[in-house]
Amino acid sequence: xxxxxxxxxxxxxxxxxxxxxxxxxxxxxxxxxxxxxxxxxxxxxxxxxxxxxxxxxxxxxxxxxxxxxxxxxxxxxxxxxxxxxxxxxxxxxxxxxxxxxxxxxxxxxxxxxxxxxxxxxxxxxxxxxxxxxxxxxxxxxxxxxxxxxxxxxxxxxxxxxxxxxxxxxxxxxxxxxxxxxxxxxxxxxxxxxxxxxxxxxxxxxxxxxxxxxxxxxxxxxxxxxxxxxxxxxxxxxxxxxxxxxxxxxxxxxxxxxxxx
Amino acid sequence: xxxxxxxxxxxxxxxxxxxxxxxxxxxxxxxxxxxxxxxxxxxxxxxxxxxxxxxxxxxxxxxxxxxxxxxxxxx
Lengths: 260, 75
Known about the structure:
heterodimer, A: mainly alpha, two-stranded antiparallel ribbon, two-stranded antiparallel sheet, 9 helices, about 70% helix, B: mainly alpha, F1FO ATP Synthase, elongated
């Protein structure tokens, strides 16, 4: 969310002191290398930088840890195999054998979101997933892809997806409309879930951090203890949201392959 | 009423959505615990579903937060 800094400062208060504790300041996007692509602002920002860092980390880790190809895995190879097995299990239980060809996509998606969420937990870094445009782009790609999978597999039969079975004919016109609307809101709910969780968590951490500084050496210990607990909670949420993002993709994929 | 005041009141009202999320999360963990204590051997298999339900219930509250932020910073 590209929040205008002055608007936030105006809503909270004014002055340089507020600026330092502005909980929205951490989400600001800075242009590192300005690029003007035929009138479109395609600058290399801090958001792009952390996406590149995440991709390099994931690829580097997987290539490096699997380079030994030991039969009895070492520590690094175990972690790589664990993450592979975790996602493979998720795809197997939610989509079945028909979903195995989508495994690379789900694996990349899960690792990308997970690493971006976890990088954001390091102080003074940038949380890419706390911007709705990033999560919405991911979600709309999933939505279009899943719809295309359904249409290619079933043709016009895919429209049966919107007609729930076993309901009275009189209710059908209403239910079909509801089904279509609920299908179309999927990319919104998928993206807002991830974005809102990450943004709310980081804002809360920043607000509590400002309590620690504000109460000083005498009173600051109580919010500091909360900060430690919240950081643990946020680490769990970072993993959980990546997991939910991947598993919902699996569920959507399953529905368009098997039609309910 | 001042439009600015109406925006702030609306943002406050939108945060009531968190009450529903609280009820939902409490219900999910309560139901999981009562099920797990009746049949501990089946509890581990349902842990992923617990996390999924938790995340889904929590997200509904955060939609309210998004509405509050839109009211405060966008409208």
